[in-house]
């Protein structure tokens, strides 16, 4: 609302956009469900309503053929409770996530199927520790293989 030169108020009319999130739930034939996105979150990230399972992370990776990462931003509660989950997408070989004292890297995917942490993966864990994040172990979700744990040491 603003005041016009004649001293009257003016306002703007508009049609309400659909209350749409950037993600939605997709139901599968086997009765399970996955979270899908309307736009790739990229390195700015997308807030999501719940933690994704490794299978749900791999669904996104298979569909979009890029690495995805899932991050938990610690909340104000005890042990970081009440925080928020975010996903990030990158390229076929990398994904960029935020680094802060309140960041927990839950998992990231390897579309190429490597079950080993890359040098950059380990460097990122060291960086998280250096800035004060309590996290020491994260997980890799490799395509076609079991989830793997890793730390800054390998
Ligand atoms: Zn990796």
Q: What does this protein structure show overall?
A:
The radius of gyration is 20 Å and the shape is globular. The strands form 3 sheets. It has a 6-stranded mixed beta sheet, with helices on both faces. The model has no long low-confidence stretch (mean pLDDT 91). 15% of the residues lie in helices and 29% in strands. 23% of the residues are buried. The protein has one domain: Cytidine Deaminase, domain 2 (3-Layer(aba) Sandwich), CATH 3.40.140. The chain is α+β, with helices and mostly antiparallel strands. A hairpin with a 5-residue loop joins strand 1 and strand 2 (9-10). Bound molecules: zinc ion. Zinc ion binds at residues 108, 110, 117-118, 121, 140.
**CATH architectural group:** 3-Layer(aba) Sandwich
Estimated helix fraction: 10-25%
Average pLDDT reading:
91
Structural class: alpha+beta
Small-molecule binders? zinc ion
Q: What is the H/E string?
A: EEEEEHEEEHEE
Distance between the termini: 58 Å
**Overall shape:** globular
Instruction: Summarize the biggest pleated sheet.
Output: 6 strands, mixed
Reading side by side through the largest sheet, how are the strands ordered?
5-7-6-8-9-10
CATH class assignment: Alpha Beta
Rg value: 20 Å
CATH topology: Cytidine Deaminase, domain 2
Contiguous helical run count: 2
Low-confidence stretches: none
Kindly state the number of beta strands.
10
């Amino acid at each position: 609302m603003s005041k016009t030169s004649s001293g009257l108020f003016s306002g703007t009319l508009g049609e309400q956009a659909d209350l749409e999130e950037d993600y939605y739930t997709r139901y599968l034939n086997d009765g399970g469900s996955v979270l899908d996105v309307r736009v790739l979150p990229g390195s700015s990230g997308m807030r999501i309503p719940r933690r994704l399972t490794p299978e749900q992370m791999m669904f996104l990776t298979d569909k979009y053929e890029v690495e995805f990462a899932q991050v938990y931003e610690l909340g104000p509660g005890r042990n970081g409770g009440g925080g928020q989950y975010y996903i990030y997408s990158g390229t076929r070989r990398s994904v960029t996530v935020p680094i802060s004292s309140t960041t927990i890297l839950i998992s990231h995917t390897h579309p190429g199927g490597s079950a080993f942490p890359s040098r950059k993966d380990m460097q990122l864990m060291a960086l998280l520790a250096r800035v004060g994040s309590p996290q020491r172990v994260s997980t890799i979700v490799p395509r076609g293989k079991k989830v793997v744990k890793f730390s800054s040491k390998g």
